[in-house]
Every structure is written in C-alpha cells, then in structure tokens.
Amino acid sequence: MVDTDSLARLALFGDLTAPQLEALAHAFAEERHSRNDRVLRQGLSGNGFYVILAGEAAVRIEGQERARLGAGEFFGEISIFTDEAVGADVVVTSEDLRCAVLPGLELKQLLIRYPHIAVRMLEAGARRLRNANRWSA
Amino acid sequence: MVGVDEQSFPPGTYDVVVVGSGPGGLQTNYYLRRYGVRHAVLSADRAPGGMFQRWPIYQRLLSWSKLDAPVPTETRDYEWYDHNSLIAEDPGHRGLVPACMSREFVVPSRAEMEAGLATFAERTALSIRYGCRWESTRREGDVLVLGTSDGEYRCRAAVFAVGVTEPWKSAIPGIEHVPHYGEAQDPRAYRGQDVLVIGKRNSGFELADGLLPWARRIILVSPSPVHSAVLAHTTVRARYLQPLEDHALGGGTFAVDAAIERIGLAQDGRFFVRAIGTTLPGTFEVSADAVIAATGFRAALGDLSALDVATVENERLPALTPYWESATSPGIFFAGNASQGAPGLRKNGVSSSSAAVQGFRYNARVLARHLAERHFGARSERPILAPDEVVSTLAGDLARRPELWAQKGYLARAVTLNGGLRCQDEGIVPLEHFVDQPGPDAAAVTVETDREGRIFPCVYLRRRGSLREVALDPHPLNAFDGKSYRGELRRLLDL
Fold first, then answer.
1. CATH code of the domain covering residue A47
2. CA nearest A85 in B: which residue?
3. Helix/strand/coil (H, E, C) string of chain A?
4. Range of A114's domain?
5. A–B: how many Cβ contacts below 8 A?
6. I want to staple B481 with a disulfide (CB 3.0 to 4.6 A). Which of A132, B9, B24, B399 is the partner?
7. What is the pLDDT, as a whole number, of residue B1?
8. pTM here?
9. Is the pLDDT of residue B255 over 70?
C-alpha cells in the first residue's frame, strides 16, 4: 500500500479521481532502496511495474548508463509488455529511492481499467523514443 | 519475588539484544544461542506467545498443522505439514504446536498456538527477561543503547521482534469514532445489528465470518476488489468463503469496492457512512449500528524513526535489506512478522512469506548465522562438495527443503562452484543477496511460482560477474530430484 498523496502528486495519475487514486494506492506496494541498490536486474524475468515516488535511478545496459529517471517516471513496463527478461539494470543514484510497485501481471488490467494512465504512458514513451532517435541520428 | 539483577540478562553490554518473546523472538533467541552469539532477550510480556496471547479474536489460526503426515513429527520434512511450530535442531523439540492440538481441526486455536510456543520455550530452556519493557533507543558511536524499564542495554546489533501489532487506521474523516478490529466485541454483542466493516482482507473477513450467525446485515467496504481467483490458492480462503458466498447469493452480506469519504455519528448512536464506488462508479450512503475498522496493523517501531529507520507501506513496516536490516539505519534488525519489510525480488508478483510463522521461522536461522559471521567474526561450516554431491544436494533441496518451499523465491540454496573442483556449500541465503552480490562463480536454486500459479524450480548462475536465470520445467508431482532435473543441473553447472 502506498499513501494516496504520493500518487496524487504524479502526472502519470493526474487524470484520476480521489476514489480511483485510493484504489490505486491499495493496488501498489511501496519499496525503498539505498544508493547503488539494484531495483531491476538485467536478465531476470517476472518483474513488476515501478513508478518513482522520490529519488533518482540510472538505467544501465552491460554497465553503461543509458538514461536517468526521477520522480514521476516509471520503468519495468517493457519486459512486461514483451514478456521477456529485463533488458537493463536500474540502479539507485540518489541517497534514497522510494517507488510504488505493481505486480507485472496486473499492469494490463490496470491500463484497461484506467485508460488515462495508458495515454500518459504512451506520451512518455513517445518522448523517450523521440530522444532515442535524436541521439542515434 | 526475583530481584532485577537475579533474573536472566541483567542490564549491561551484550553483542546482540533481542526484543520480543513472540514466535519471531523465540526463534531468533534459539538460533543466536546455537551460533554462539552473546545476546540478551527482553520482553515486556510475562510469558511467551506474543500476539497469540491476544489474536486472532474470533477464530482459529489460518495456517495448518497436520497431526498425521507421511513423515514422523520429529523429522525436518515434517515442517512441510506443520506451518505453526518453531523449528529446532534437536528432534525432540520439533512439531510442538500439533502436540498441543486437539484433533477437531487441522488449524490451531489461539490457545493451542500459545501453548505450543510456551512448550518450545520451556523444552529448549530459552532464557528471556520478562516484564522488561523496551522504552527508548539511541546511538553512542557504534553502540546502540536500549533504555528499558529495568535499565540500559548496550549492544552492537539489536533485533526487534516486536510484531506487526499496533492497530492502524486509514485517514478517513470520522474514523476516530470507530473501534479497531482489536477492540471488536464478542459476536453476540452484534445480534440483530447492521454492521459495516472497513477492510476486505483477512481481519475484515474474520469479523464477517464471526458475525454471520449474529448480525442482521454485514457490509464490507474497501477500495480494492477481493481477488477471489488468487484467494482460492491461499490458506486464508476458508475465512472468506462464507461471507463471499452470502454476497454472491444476495443473502444480506455485501462486499463493496468503494472509497469511504466520511463517517458520521448521529445523536442516536447510529453511524452514517458516505462512500464513492471504485469498481462501479457512484456514491452511496448507508447507516449502521456498528462500524469496525479492520484496516490492519503496523509494526511496533517505538522511537526507531528518530534513528532514521525508514518505513514503507504507509509507514506500517520497516524498509529492510534482504538480511532484514533496516535499509537506512545499520545495526537495527527485525525478526518475526516485521521481517515482511523485506519482500525480496517479487518475481511474478510473489513477495516473501515472512508475514507468517511458516516463513519467518527460517529467516531467524539465516539472520542468526549472518549476525554471527558478519558482525562477530564467527565462520560456520561450509562443507566441500564433490560434483555428484552438488547435484544431489541442490536437486534434493528443490524437491524437499522446507526453507525453499516455505519462502518461495526468497530463500535459496547456494553453492560456490570454483570450476567444479572444490565446490563449497554456502547453505541457505536470501536470493536477492545472492543475485546482487559480486563474488566467485556460483549457483543458487529456488522454488518459485509462475503467473499461472504453477510451481517450478529456478537456477541462478553467476559466472564472471554476470547473472543468468534458468527456469526448469514444472513436474506434476513436484519431483524436482528426478533424473532429468539432475541431468539439467549437471549440464547448467558444468559438472
């Protein structure tokens, strides 16, 4: 269970009503990690969907940093949608990282129930893709 | 009357201080003694048993202890059939909860559980300082100082086995008028009443089941739906069955998915509750003769937040490392129910089973060894295994080892490989620690559950610093020590 206020602050959940946020707060669990802890591990399967509530983490592939994620950003969805092992490590770079985590198998159902979250995720995904294309061009 | 200094563990300096005499405290005490760690055990209670001196209020426990099993009660394999007893190295100290049970039910009553724990403390001659209340905590350099009703205790590491026993209520306007689950009256007091229960988890359904023969109408309310398909596979299903059946048949019990907006108390003593639907939209108002908050409990953390012990789950549990140390405050460890603050990797959504005796009794042994080795320089035996022994050990553990089956996906059996020449048995370790720890080539095995609820063995290989996970096939009889599994292990481990 996560506190409702922490979720209400994030753009990802910005379109939800108060009771919807409360239902969401019950569906997510809360995790805390310290600097250099791994939250996701490259090569492992069956992970959850993570939303950062506070703190910062790096996305690393074979030890090389590819992106930085901060409060309101999310990770873990790609391996859930593709049903493959995680493709990157996510490592804590701040003193403390606080996340909300949802079991992977519940993500699709959540997005069907709250399509507004799916739209927000698509928008964030489009921005990530655009940035990746700029870098590779 | 025994004087303060004549009892066991007078105030003073110890390597480790354990607080609590419930199942988590007793099990930690037992294994710290076994590993030779100089420690004190303090308890505010007058007798062992912890929460089982008070709860559950209406019903028996949910976890079973089967009196007749395919294996004798004094064997380790019997732990499979007995989810309530503490574990012991001496065969005469095993299976003590079922020894205190009548044969009417397969799950113990609260009193039977309490008797089983007291028998364990007595037979294993555990020393505990009763009537000594932990009151404050501070640091002096590397030393932790615990202030108690009997004086100060100084130690390098403290283990808090104080349970998840403080009533916790969600922040709903008007909740202050509502008694908590722990304050609920005898079911007969609700005869002919409309009762609204806030919460649709274990304690909410325990109340509903207990009230079914007495209350006129029962409404259970919380935002999330009951996942009945998931429940069907868990030990708590019995408690949910009748109220949910009554809900499905329209018999006067309702399980409603809604967020409560406010609770009001009228002058005639009736409650008014206004709620907003979550699964189905819409606002509704109900009145009730009684409202009970079955909203759960929080760990009894005392003043530990002043020592930067961070929490999760709405400040209900300490945030813990895989070895159950506070993620933010070194030297402060947790045992028993609060050890669920370390969920593990949560693969396929499955967290550790540390909220039940069946799971946390194994944590205590792993924690005691960890404390002995990491903090006090002890080194427990790590036998060298021949290649054939590695395969038979790992396969045998996958098929039968109670730790792996009770703590699926959390506890693993690990072996250092050293090119197959001098493989070393690392014993039972938290899987998360194994996968995140740099080290020599090694393998660990776990028993896990997939998304469809099937049980399968999983092998983790660490070679030249990189990690590989190999899921093996499920088996209709879970015979993971069969020829094909041994062959697969031999191939994967290069033995």
1. 2.60.120.10
2. B469
3. CCCHHHHHCCHHHCCCCHHHHHHHHHHCEEEEEECCCEEECCCCCCCCEEEEEECCEEEEECCEEEEEECCCCEECHHHHHHCCCCCCEEEECCCEEEEEEECHHHHHHHHHHCHHHHHHHHHHHHHHHHHHHHHHC
4. 4-130
5. 94
6. B399
7. 46
8. 0.94
9. yes
